[in-house]
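As described in the Methods, two query proteins were run sequentially through the folding procedure within a single session, without resetting any intermediate state between them. The first query and its resulting structure tokens are shown here.
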Amino acid sequence: MWSPPGPFQLQQSPQAPRKRLAKNQCADCGRVLSSASALESHASLHSGKRPFACSACGKDFPNLKGLNRHAHVHGEQQGHHCPQCSKTFVYRFGLTKHEQMVHSGVRPFICPICDKRFVIRRDMETHLRVHTGEKPFACSLCVKRFKRRVELNVHLRWHNGEKRHWCSYCGKGFLDYNNLKAQICPHWGETLHLH
């Protein structure tokens, strides 16, 4: 079906067909974001554009949300300080969450199957998938499914052919560091040449 080119249409060159992307998936790195606005914000990491600058210190940001969050640093109140480790948080809820997770030792959420305890309900719900086998995150490019979104994101990078770790001896690239470490090259002696 042909339609005239418009401002929001994807332009494809005939010699280099684009890979199919999942909803809210970054075309540059394969990461899947939670929303279209999160994807738009994430895309600025690849473009390098940081048009929002702080008038107080000059630090620049890719979006207005980041600049506004940063602005609290220069306000009258310099943040919320943890009395136990002197870490500082812009928002009070950040300090409260930090105190609960790091210092209180309280883990109110308990797995009903194995009694493992968690600070955050979402972590307990994710853990339950170990017992149930549920895999709610489906790859749109193949039939694989995953228990956690982060696992899907790594898998999508594999589809995109992304390589992040390279053997300095033979030049072979790998998606993750563990695959690089596990690589058995006959020309490697006892010493691994890892980057």
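Immediately afterward, the second query was submitted; its sequence and tokens are:
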Amino acid sequence: MTPAGDTGAPHPNGAGRRGAGTTSEKAPQTPGAPGSTELPETPETPEGPSDPEAAGPTPPSASGPSGSGAAPPEEADGPGAGAGKAGRFWSVRRVPAGVVALLLFAGTGILLYDAASVRAGRTGMAWRRTLTDELASRRLDDVLMLAGAAVLAALGLWLLVLALTPGKRSLLTMRPDVPGVRAGLERSAAALVLRDRAMEVSGVQAVRVTVSRRRVRARATAHFRDLAEVRGDLDGALRAGIAELGLAGRPGLAVQVRRPPKRR
């Protein structure tokens, strides 16, 4: 007989009815026995492939490869972060500007004083009357007129050249590796560095290096070794030294090697 309160049917989760604080186990039942019910077997759902490569590519995360939300270095800095056009340094031209301003101030001041004196009933300055008479009486093809015009034209051209050229020819512009920072190198310092590099070459007795904005010239004397070998080693050492200077525009290189003069 079946105890009261027990229907004999299995619990949906496969276990018998459980009371509070007690554990009951399902009794084995024989198929076809009275009071027993057979449940249909549910087919198992096939699980996905365990191999991550077979499951296909994983979509990239929006927070970056590390998941920390930081962008890669190349994206954070941007392409060409340290690149940019490196222009030359412009001179302030304090001395020419000061001289021109002082001359203009003195000339306009004297003319205004003379004009105010004439308006007040006094006689004008003698030099102004003489200059006015000379300009009124002389012809345009006069030698003094042509000479004065040439001097004034030369001064005006000189001022235009000073205003349109950057100046600071002794300063070489360096490569802008850091954004917002401009650096320069004196030509004398660059020549000293390259001279030290040239003296390290075997066979070089003395060397003279001159550096300009477009070319580096080295004149060396070799007291031993073949001149062609010394010239090749010197050329390689100076080219490596020029590359290490970090200049914005790499100058050309001219190397001359000769034997020292014979002593008599």
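The beta strands are 171-173, 184-186, 204-211, 215-222, 252-258. We note this only descriptively and draw no conclusion about the first query from it.
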